[in-house]
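Might you be able to check the backbone structure tokens below? Thank you kindly.
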Amino acid sequence: MADSFEFPVDRTQVMLFARSVLDINPAFVEPDSPEAKANGGLVTPPTFVQSSAHYQPDYPLDLT
């Protein structure tokens, strides 16, 4: 497993992930929404971190 790797994140990736898991919480896509402001800005869905596997060079479940 890689010790470290870059996992670039922008709000579009967060929005696409939230849509893919059918989560319509405005805190994930609208920085001016009351939900985002209550959290200090946009937040990510709790399972978003799993997306980092696409950037991990030695991801053990990569079957390609």
